[in-house]
Design a protein that fits this description.
The structure is a homodimer.
Chain A: H1 4-9, H2 30-36, H3 41-46, H4 48-63, E1 67-68, H5 75-79, E2 84-87, E3 91-94, H6 101-106, H7 112-115, H8 117-129, E4 136-141, H9 143-152, H10 160-168, H11 170-194, E5 198-203, H12 211-217, H13 219-230, E6 236-240, H14 247-250, E7 257-259, H15 266-273, E8 278-283, H16 292-306, E9 312-316, H17 326-341
Parallel strand pairs in A: 1-4, 4-5, 5-6, 6-7, 7-8, 8-9
Antiparallel strand pairs in A: 2-3
């Protein structure tokens, strides 16, 4: 198996810089669109053969160094007892958003194996299919990010309901975060036992917090989840979007790899993160709309900066956009492999 | 006149920290809602008596140390020849978005005095009304932020059309930025001549750029506008939202005051900005939903951090939210005045 990715996560020597793309299994791929034309998004997530199929699609096509489980961060939220649906216009919708104590009390801490057997099954299929290829990354939404969806009932602009609960009833907010963290930790534990060889915590919305609020309302939960999961012995990646103001805290989470979004210079980020963690990132997803030769230049620049970290996994600074030309994603992966060898 | 605000902009000694709020004339005020019930948003912007009226509403009610002209950043874009409208759901809409050379060529560089006489008139009314009260701030959108609206045709999530033009046709993008910068500079010059005692450049979307792209595609235009406007002798404030990763560049714009959003610790921001500029900010707008005593604590913390800068103007880290309880905004202003005196 190509273990470049796992080695880079641990900061070990690698012959070249490994690369994968957040949302690499997704709408920019015609093969993915073909599958989605037949089934809705949630059915796809919950049908192991299909979820495994779309997980594998980018692996050969893009020649990436890791696969990531196809699923959605809100799947365990559904297992906690909320009703989840997806609207083409509004994105995810969680009906009866959590706004008070009875809402928090009603939430279950699910038996993650029993509640999400399809995830275990998908991972088992994938490990077999990927045996001589690349490692499989499992993932979950970070507690604060999941809390925002649960409290807002979906996406949000200002996260006012979330912050209102945080500010006006911090005890209640903490009890919600506690339940989510327990669930997420169990869920990632289940993924690892099923065969995930690394796991990533996606903190899409951490960046809407002041550093002070991040420290009080999210950091302790990330630290706890990471400490618990480290016992399983696989690399833990923590990606917080819009992280530029939070790196001083993020450094202390204990994660093996810190994902960095594109809004900060990678060299700057590494300076603030120090020598004890590997980094992952951080090409602007829109840079895949550059002319091909320019993509190479940007890749080279980021590779050069990544050299200063304990380890570097190349990635985008956020998910690949649905409009991205596939050949440009391929160009990017080729450039990472080519330039990092020299 | 209370000149605390102007003194703080220049880094001079002040008896207390001055404060104003971005969007302080706006939907959270019942008096503003009453005016808006009678006229639509664009008519309000273009009717001097009414625009002056809503500008003045928060001055006494909140006891802030500066007034800011009520207008919209897209007003000069309309003067450049684009058709502007506002939708309650989608926000601003610019029909026929700029996507190619003929679009850029079609844009006028307006005679800003002739094209926007209502702005001059509003400022003249306001200076009379504010004579023994507080200074008047004029404003404009920063070139990149205006470019995003002009290219996207309105608000955007990923700014893909903007970045596509930047990346695929940088020459065209630069020629658009050149035209916008000329217009914005003329427009702010007109405001200053009419009586604005300071001006702020609002760069709402600068934070979606990588530091490298900011340096190439926005920084030179900010620097040029600032250099030109400095000749007028009034303080120039530059507010870039989501600035945490960009401060190294922002430091060099030449602006007298740098506005800082809430996603970075103000002490950290000041460290990176150095001793030559004053700062403005940076309370999370959602912190106005805290219990009143907690608002005081946050204000105190930010005031303490602001002490490290050449000058500090207290403000929110972005515009006040429409849902904000007015009494909490008043509490905030009182707390700034009270704690900064001691």
């Amino acid at each position: 198996m190509n273990d470049t990715f796992l080695k880079a996560c641990r900061g070990e020597d690698v012959p070249y810089t490994p690369v994968w793309l957040m949302r690499q299994a997704g709408r920019y791929l015609p093969e993915y669109q073909a599958v989605r034309a037949e089934v809705d998004f949630l059915t796809l997530c919950k049908t192991p053969e299909l979820a495994a199929k779309v997980t594998l699609q980018p692996v050969d096509k893009l020649n990436v160094d890791a696969a990531i489980l196809f699923s959605d961060i809100l799947i365990p939220v559904e297992a906690m007892g909320m009703h989840l649906s997806f609207s083409d216009k509004r994105g995810p919708i969680l009906s009866e958003p959590i706004r008070n104590k009875s809402g928090v009390d009603r939430l279950l801490i699910p038996d993650t194996e029993d509640a999400m057997p399809f995830v275990i099954e998908t991972i088992k299929i994938l490990r077999k299919e990927l045996e001589k290829k690349v490692p499989l990354i499992g993932f979950a939404g970070a507690p604060f990010t999941l809390a925002t969806y649960m409290i807002e009932g979906g996406s949000s602009k200002n996260f006012l309901h979330t912050k209102k609960m945080m500010f006006q009833n911090p005890g209640l907010f903490h009890s919600l975060m506690d339940k989510i963290t327990t669930t997420v930790t169990l869920y990632l534990g289940t993924q690892i036992k099923a065969g995930a060889q690394a796991v990533q915590l996606f903190d899409t919305w951490a960046g809407v917090l002041t550093p002070e609020d991040y420290k009080e309302f999210e950091f302790p939960y990330i630290k706890r989840a990471v400490a618990e999961l480290k016992k399983e012995g696989v690399p833990i990646i923590y990606f917080a979007n819009e992280c530029a103001g939070l790196l001083k805290e993020i450094k202390k989470t204990g994660a093996d790899v810190i994902g960095v979004d594109w809004r900060i210079d990678l060299r700057e980020a590494i300076k603030r993160l120090g020598k004890k963690v590997a980094v992952q990132g951080n090409l602007d997803p829109c840079a895949l709309f550059l002319p091909k030769e320019k993509i190479g230049e940007r890749v080279e620049d980021i590779l050069w900066k990544g050299e200063f970290a304990k380890g570097h996994i190349f990635n985008l600074g956020h998910g690949i956009l649905p409009e991205t030309p596939v050949e440009n994603a391929i160009t990017m992966v080729e450039a990472v492999h080519k330039y990092s060898r020299t």
